[in-house]
């Protein structure tokens, strides 16, 4: 089955936050994306709430529950106590744990699974006890992924930033794709399902989907929001779904 598309609403929230006004509406554009066929919505709340605000989460949860009960809600972020309580209050289908520092402008690396395993283990256990699917954001590096399974994770999310940055470097893109493919295969061998995200575009998705046939989900925000400004959200979602192979 082609990878499912989860639309990341952070970039829309960032645009909204330029003013103390309720537009563009994060929930409204989430609704349009799901109505156009997207399979889920992703948010990545950060402690300073510079994109998604904590108050957006119950509204997104209600949108899915009331209007799109088959859609998935994915919450991404660094597992502080504040983040974990936010997750527990809003009951997503999936939690993607990301090792980003509050000062980072965006996510730019995956977990050091060996070095940070002791920190992650109780966090994964706590989320699993709540019945949530847990995914760990990882670099495209095949070695050591069994550790993610040992920690209790269900999935990994491949950090595709280095692949995305090869948009005008075809040889580099081929090298990154091979690295992503080997990492995905190592994850599958370890019993983990595979998600991917960061700087994915309509242009670079088809090759990724071909390289990783087992890809379960892609979460996409920045390029999808840029395209939505040009083509409108419904047409953009259809273009991204087609790029995934739907
Ligand atoms: C983990 C990841 O790659 C995304 O969550 C990314 O951080 C999107 O969030 P921003 O667009 O707010 O950086
Ligand atoms: N997990 C990655 C994500 O949600 C979106 O990243 P981007 O498309 O905004 O780079």
UniProtKB/TrEMBL annotation:
Protein residues bound to 3-amino-2-oxopropyl phosphate: 8, 19, 199, 221-222
Keywords from the UniProt entry: Cytoplasm, Pyridoxine biosynthesis, Transferase
Complexes and interactors: Homooctamer; tetramer of dimers.
Record's subcellular location: Cytoplasm
GO molecular function: pyridoxine 5'-phosphate synthase activity
EC numbers, comma separated: 2.6.99.2
Active site: 44 (proton acceptor), 76 (proton acceptor), 198 (proton donor)
Residues that hold 1-deoxy-D-xylulose 5-phosphate according to the record: 46, 51, 106
Gene: pdxJ
CDD domains membership: PNPsynthase
GO cellular component: cytosol
Short name of one Pfam family: PdxJ
Name listed for the protein in its UniProt record: Pyridoxine 5'-phosphate synthase
Catalysed conversion reaction: 3-amino-2-oxopropyl phosphate + 1-deoxy-D-xylulose 5-phosphate = pyridoxine 5'-phosphate + phosphate + 2 H2O + H(+)
Known pathway: Cofactor biosynthesis; pyridoxine 5'-phosphate biosynthesis; pyridoxine 5'-phosphate from D-erythrose 4-phosphate: step 5/5
InterPro entries registered for this protein in UniProt: Aldolase_TIM (IPR013785), PyrdxlP_synth_PdxJ (IPR004569), Pyridoxine-5'_phos_synth (IPR036130)
Main EC class the enzyme belongs to: transferase
């Amino acid at each position: 089955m082609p990878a499912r598309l989860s639309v990341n609403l952070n970039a829309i929230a960032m645009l909204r936050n330029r003013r103390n006004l309720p537009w563009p509406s994060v929930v409204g554009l989430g609704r349009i994306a799901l109505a156009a066929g997207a399979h889920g919505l992703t948010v990545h709340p950060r402690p300073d709430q510079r994109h998604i605000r904590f108050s957006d989460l119950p509204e997104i949860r209600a949108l899915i529950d009331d209007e799109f009960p088959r859609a998935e809600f994915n919450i991404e972020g660094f597992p502080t106590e504040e983040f974990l309580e936010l997750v527990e209050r809003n009951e997503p289908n999936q939690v993607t744990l990301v090792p980003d520092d509050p000062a980072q402008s965006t996510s730019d690396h995956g977990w050091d699974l060996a070095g940070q395993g002791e920190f992650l283990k109780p966090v994964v256990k706590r989320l699993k006890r709540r019945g949530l699917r847990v995914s760990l954001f990882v670099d495209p590096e095949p070695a050591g992924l069994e550790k993610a399974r040992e920690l209790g994770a269900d999935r990994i999310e491949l950090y595709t930033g280095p692949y995305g940055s090869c948009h005008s470097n075809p040889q580099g893109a081929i090298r990154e794709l091979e690295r992503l493919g080997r990492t995905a295969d190592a994850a599958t061998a370890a019993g983990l399902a595979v998600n991917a995200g960061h700087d994915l575009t309509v242009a670079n998705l088809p090759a990724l989907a071909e390289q990783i046939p087992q890809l379960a989900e892609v979460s996409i925000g920045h390029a999808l929001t840029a395209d939505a400004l040009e083509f409108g959200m419904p047409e953009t979602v259809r273009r991204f779904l087609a790029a995934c192979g739907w």
